[in-house]
Amino acid sequence: MSPNQSTPNSGQPLLKVEGVSKYFMRDKSRFAAVEDVSVTLNAGETLGIVGESGSGKSTLSRCIIRLYDPEKGRIFFDGIDFTGLSNKALRLKRRDIQMIFQDPLASLNPMMTVHSAIEDPMLIHNVGTARERTKRVHELLELVGLDVGAANAFPFEFSGGQQQRIGIARALALNPKLLICDEAVSALDVSIQAQILRLLQDLQKQLGLAYLFISHNLAVVEHMSDQIAVMYHGKVVEYDTVEEIFRAPKQEYTRNLIDSVPKIPRSDSLRFKRPRLNEDAAGA
Ligand SMILES: Nc1ncnc2c1ncn2[C@@H]1O[C@H](COP(=O)(O)OP(=O)(O)OP(=O)(O)O)[C@@H](O)[C@H]1O
Fold first, then answer.
1. What is the ipTM of this complex?
2. How far is ligand 1, taken at its centre, from the CA of residue 254, in Å?
3. ABC transporter domain location, by residue (predicted)?
4. Going along the chain, which residue ranges are E strands?
5. How far, in Å, from the CA of 59 to the mean position of ligand 1?
6. Which member of 143, 163, 174, 275 lies 3.0 to 4.6 Å from 279 by CB, making a disulfide possible if both were Cys?
């Protein structure tokens, strides 16, 4: 399934997933966690992946970064066939794709200061001198709306929203082209969710990032995305622009998802009013 012909295609394709399938074993039989999925994400745009728990969203994202090897299909990133890359070439290219997760603390080493956590990807990839890396850590903290003084503290000393900002700063350390946001705001209070979503939108504008935005929450996906792929039992059952999905959902499953979205006017400026980056940091 592909977006209809009217889909705006302003950016260049950055990510192309073509017929990807991934199987696992359950009760001694093989089942498709992801089946024949094809989606495209343009540079600087957001593709939302929505679906209930177990529909295959995370497995798809793990196939994209080749944490899993898909059994079928191909994944092109930045014009390169990711599925055919050697481990060494993959490691080099994978720095252009970073992930942020639902629980930022789980992905940050508790023994590392915020400075070390953000510097770590640069050290792993041999980027810059110690002085240059420190400068970059401070730039990144400011970029995500945190005080430079945060560098000396440990992640557990921060609130959930601030921890997610630290996770985002770390993810941005290597100047990626694509950020995979896997349930990135699901664990946060609604007001903090809105702040992190605004931050992600501001960063997208400033840095030209593309997002693969994964969530079970259609309201959040709607707010963030240019296009949406709806997953059900491992398959993409609907794939189109946000406007089309909401205007004329083709599948009953999608209609039910839309019906379950709280009825708040889409233009509601309170929920997602855009503040300046550093205005919302205190509460997050
Ligand atoms: N490593 C694995 N081994 C076996 N089965 C798995 C594995 N990872 C995921 N699954 C199964 O594959 C299916 C898809 O899981 P996946 O985590 O991709 O879904 P999801 O949509 O991301 O759900 P959630 O939002 O709950 O994480 C589920 O039935 C899950 O139990």
1. 0.97
2. 20
3. 15-258
4. 13-26, 29-42, 46-50, 72-77, 80-81, 97-100, 178-182, 210-215, 227-232, 235-241
5. 6
6. 275
Q: Which pLDDT tens digits describe the chain residue by residue (284 residues)?
A: 444 433 334 578 999 999 999 999 999 999 999 999 999 999 999 999 999 999 999 999 999 999 999 999 999 999 999 888 888 888 888 899 999 999 888 888 888 999 999 999 999 999 999 999 999 999 999 999 999 999 999 999 999 999 999 999 999 999 999 999 999 999 899 999 999 999 999 999 999 999 999 999 999 999 999 999 999 999 999 999 999 999 999 999 999 998 887 654 544 433 433 333 333 444 45
Structural domains in the chain, CATH included, are 1-96+178-184+207-284 (3.40.50.300)
Atom 4 of ligand 1: nearest residue by CA position: 24
Q: Count the neighbouring beta carbons within 10 Å of the beta carbon of residue 240.
A: 23
Task: Determine the Cα–Cα distance for residues 241 and 3; give it in Å rounded to an integer.
Answer: 7
Indicate whether residue 165 lines ligand 1 (CB < 6 A). Answer: no
Mutating to test ligand 1, I would choose from 57, 61, 213, 217 the residue with most ligand atoms within 8 A of its C-beta, which is 57
Q: Given phi > 0 = left and psi -120 to 50 = alpha, else beta, which region is 126?
A: left
Would you say the CB of residue 51 lies under 6 angstroms from ligand 1?
yes
